[in-house]
Design brief:
The structure holds 2 protein chains of 2 kinds. By secondary structure, chain A is of the alpha+beta class. Chain A folds into 2 domains: about 5-70 and about 90-115, no CATH class; about 125-265, Cupredoxins -  blue copper proteins (Immunoglobulin-like, Sandwich). Chain A has 5 helices and 10 strands, in the order H-H-H-H-E-E-E-E-E-E-E-E-E-E-H. Chain A has helices at about 5-25, 40-70, 85-115, 125-130, 255-265; strands spanning about 155-165, 165-170, 175-180, 180-185, 190-195, 200-205, 210-215, 220-225, 230-235, 245-255. In chain A, strand 6 (about 200-205) and strand 7 (about 210-215) form a beta hairpin. Chain A is elongated. Chain B is mainly α. Chain B has one domain (about 30-555): Cytochrome c oxidase-like, subunit I domain (Cytochrome C Oxidase, Chain A). The radius of gyration of chain B is 24 Å and the shape is globular. The chains are: A alpha+beta, B mainly alpha. At the A-B interface, helix 2, helix 3, strand 7 and strand 9 of A face helix 2, helix 8, helix 9, helix 10 and helix 11 of B.
């Protein structure tokens, strides 16, 4: 008994969708997630990966099928059918991508909102950190902190200075200056970033976060680390000959360990006054 | 008394033979080939630079090139490949060769301007390359973001600006010429909606060139003021704004992607129907989608700047506009698939490269839609994921189409066919090498390798070596191609005038075509894709349309 072509097409389509969903859900291409917004990002990635797989496998399948099925056999002459178009079909494959793209756009907007990307600039969490900002405008980064600012945990302010070819981290409350970034797990952190010379970019792949550090335009980046460990900080904007070597480390500590680190290094906390070590 | 014109007296105005390819020729076919060969030489230079990059990245430490030289190499690689290979070839070479045929004209609208446009390119290219030997080549990437481009050695950066200005000028001259030719030089009786699709692609591309290239030129002039006159347009320490440069730069450089890709779409639309023996599916929607891409292409530039501190509303707008480019682009791809469906597909090298293009470009398009999403982009911006994405677009997309076009139109230009076995070998090596080189780079970017680095985290060593092997295969794939092109020019099988039994006008004259394209009147081709004779009804040779031949003079076969 011959199975009608429509049924076959339907089954193939369903198999394709299932394959795409399976691949999207089960093949992990990303590094470990270590910040509050990384799982949100990974969710978006899975959806995009599934849709992409379905489209790609479907189109490659169609091409390979056409090349095999409709190839010109030796000795065969003549043309294919003179089909110049099919309006309903063309409307269909305009409408479907439009709907998919619209869905992806709205979904990624939602993701971005959950990551704090749509938070207004210069919000109160900014004013909370370290007094008045002389640079009157702070340029947008991702700041999920502002969404949680009612919570008990106030964001830990840290000043970041990027220069050729290093990041310097300054903790204004504890007056610590460090070449490595120490942050407590679970507490929001607000990085206030400035560049001295050229554009750099602060990127922690495990946090899924990146923000350019622009001379003349301070930028803000906030995140909450969720997994203890050491993760690379990478400069992602070409900044000169040693750009590839402009790396640092972010160390996510348990709150107590972080507390201990602050007490050990802060000139304020130590009773004996010490000259603060710069750079 | 009569003056007799003896052959001795009528010395040709321009050199004949191979010398005309080195002359200030105004013949659009000569200029087209000049663009192609000149572009290919720069392709080999850019490829050698890419080889240097992949060699450096074999190991996680910076050990092959000095660090400054590495940045010079990556800057030159990007600039050469974009401004001296892809843009001139896909626009200048094929545009000049084909557009006058397609509109039924004997030459471009402004032949001298056309020759000027070409002859700006070799000096500009030599200027750019020579910067390495004079002082030092530019080191700030092809994007030349200030303040880095202001602080790196000035001589190289200024030479880079001069070179790009010349190339931009050449591009604008070409764009004006194409618009005038397509709109004003059509054979009487030929309507716009009867033109082959490549004309529409070139019309759209030329609109983008004319609208956006001057913005780049102005920006680079301001940048050069910042460098030599110490003005402060983009220099934050003098009160300038570095992000404004990025807006202006990408206002050109995102449309530049479509300037590189739209003509490729047009060329594929010419190649597919001929080798599938079917009409181009959905001509009208194809035209509208080209114009849709042109419009949307102008309003998506800031998606290159999602981490540059742009305000949230701007990120949202550019996300949506960028995502929607997928719709007209998708229409074109589905139309090509429908063109193949039910055809009589000849699986030759031109067809293989065209299908390779579709596969690669769909992949690059999918990663492109992902990159358009702000949250996704914030993680992978400026990483190897982006490097992989745009190589899938410009190499997997446009360069594959350039090769497909060379296999397709080589018999037109030379009268001889290229060797199919070498062609298939070329395709296999290119396709495998390309995917081996660039597919793993997506993973590198997702996992933490930024772009434009000479040293990287040792955990990425194996994948980088895999990628370098792919690059080596790509380099090797050039050999069968070069061998094929050179040998076939002398020993290739004679092709006849119309080896593919095509209906587009460039095939309705002798191969190679005479000066001024047709011995008699240009044929009126109102149905460039009128394939579709049922199998067995007529032999293929007859479907090339004797009736079309008769529209021109019968002596044009000569």
């Amino acid at each position: 008994m011959r199975i009608p072509a429509a049924i076959l097409t339907l089954i193939t389509g369903m198999a394709l969708v299932l394959l795409g969903l399976w691949i999207g859900q089960n093949i992990n291409l990303l590094p470990v997630d270590a910040s509050a917004n990384a799982p949100v990002y990974d969710e978006l990635f899975k959806v995009l990966f599934s849709i992409g797989t379905i489209l790609f496998v479907g189109i490659v399948g169609l091409i390979v099928y056409s090349l095999v099925k409709f190839r010109r056999k030796p000795g065969e002459s003549g043309d294919g059918e003179a089909v110049e178009g099919n309006l309903p079909l063309e409307i269909l494959w305009t409408a479907i991508p439009a709907v998919v793209v619209l869905f992806v756009g709205i979904y990624s907007y939602d993701i971005y909102d959950r990551m704090g990307g749509m938070a207004p600039l210069n919000d109160h969490s900014m004013h909370a950190m370290g007094g008045e900002m002389e640079e009157s405008r702070t340029w947008g980064g991702i700041s999920p902190v502002s969404l949680e600012s009612d919570a008990a945990a106030a964001p830990l302010p840290i000043d970041v200075t990027a220069m050729q070819f290093a990041f310097i981290f300054h903790y204004p409350d504890a007056e610590i200056t460090s070449g490595e970034l120490h942050v407590p797990m679970g507490q929001p952190v607000a990085l206030h970033m400035k560049a001295n010379d050229v554009i750099h970019a602060f990127w922690v792949p495990e946090f899924r976060l990146k923000q350019d550090v622009i001379p003349g335009q301070p930028t803000l980046l906030s995140f909450t680390a969720t997994r203890p460990g050491r993760y690379p900080i990478v400069c992602a904007e070409l900044c000169g000959p040693y750009h590839g070597g402009m790396r640092s480390t972010v160390i996510v500590d348990e709150p107590e360990t972080f507390e201990a680190w602050v007490n050990q290094n802060s000139p304020i906390a130590n009773a004996a006054p010490q000259t603060p070590v710069q750079s | 008394m009569t003056i007799s014109l003896t052959p001795e007296q009528s010395t040709p105005l321009q050199p004949q033979g191979w010398l005309r390819y080195l002359s200030f020729s105004t013949d659009h076919k000569v200029i087209g080939l000049q663009y192609l060969v000149c572009g290919f030489i720069f392709y080999l230079i850019g490829g050698a630079l890419a080889g240097a990059i992949r060699t450096e990245l074999l190991t996680p430490i910076s050990d092959f090139l000095p660090r400054e030289t590495y940045n010079e190499v990556l800057t030159l690689h990007g600039t050469v490949m974009i401004f001296l290979w892809i843009v001139p070839v896909v626009n200048g070479a094929f545009g000049n060769y084909l557009i006058p045929f397609y509109v039924g004209a004997r030459d471009m609208a402004f032949p001298r301007l056309n020759a000027v446009a070409f002859w700006l390119i070799p000096p500009a290219g030599l200027l750019l390359i020579s910067s390495y030997f004079i002082a030092s080549a530019p080191q700030s990437g092809w994007t030349a973001y200030p303040p880095l481009s202001i602080t790196t050695p000035a001589t190289g950066q200024i030479i880079w600006i001069l070179s790009v200005l010349l190339l931009g000028g050449s591009s604008i001259f070409g764009g004006i010429n194409f618009i005038a030719t397509i709109l004003k030089l059509r054979r009487p009786g030929l309507k716009l909606m009867q033109l082959p699709m490549y004309c529409w692609a070139m019309l759209g591309t030329s609109i983008l060139v004319v609208l956006s290239t001057p913005v780049l030129a102005g920006t680079l002039v301001l940048l050069s003021f910042d460098i030599i006159a110490h003005t402060g347009f983009f220099n934050p320490s003098l009160g300038g704004n570095a992000v404004v440069y990025q807006h202006l730069f990408w206002f050109y450089s995102h449309p530049a992607v479509y300037i590189m890709v739209l003509p490729a779409f047009g060329l594929v639309s010419e190649i597919l129907p001929i080798h599938c023996r079917k009409p181009l599916f959905g001509y009208t929607t194809m035209v509208y989608s080209i114009m849709g891409i042109v419009f949307l292409g102008l309003i998506v530039w800031a998606h290159h700047m999602f981490t540059s501190g742009t305000p949230p509303w701007m990120r949202l707008f550019f996300t949506i506009a960028t995502s929607f480019i997928a719709v007209p682009t998708g229409i074109k791809f589905f139309n090509w698939l429908a063109t193949m469906w039910g055809g009589r597909i000849a699986l030759n090298s031109a067809m293989l490269f065209s299908c390779g293009f579709i596969i690669n470009f769909v992949f690059g398009g999918i990663t492109g839609v992902a990159l358009a999403q702000v949250p996704f982009d914030i993680h992978v911006h400026d990483t190897y994921f982006v490097v992989a994405h745009f190589h899938y677009i410009v190499y997997g997309g446009t360069v594959f189409v350039i090769f497909a076009s060379i296999y397709h139109w080589y018999p037109k230009v030379t009268g001889r066919l290229l060797n199919e076995d070498l062609g298939r070998l070329h395709f296999l090596l290119t396709f495998v090498g390309f995917n081996l080189c660039f597919a793993p780079q997506h993973w590198l970017g997702l996992n933490g390798m930024p772009r434009r680095v000479a040293e990287y985290d040792p955990q990425f060593e194996l994948i980088n070596q895999l990628s370098s092997v792919g690059a080596l295969l790509m380099a090797i794939s050039t050999l069968p191609f070069l061998l094929n092109v050179v040998l076939s020019a002398f020993n290739g099988a004679p092709a006849g005038d119309n080896p593919w039994d095509a209906l587009t006008p460039e095939w309705l004259t002798s191969s190679p075509p005479p000066v001024e394209n047709w011995k008699g009147e240009a044929p009126l081709v109102t149905e460039p894709y009128g394939y579709g004779t049922p199998a067995g009804e007529l032999p293929l040779a007859a479907t090339s349309g004797p009736e079309l031949w008769k529209l021109g003079n019968s002596d044009q076969r000569s």
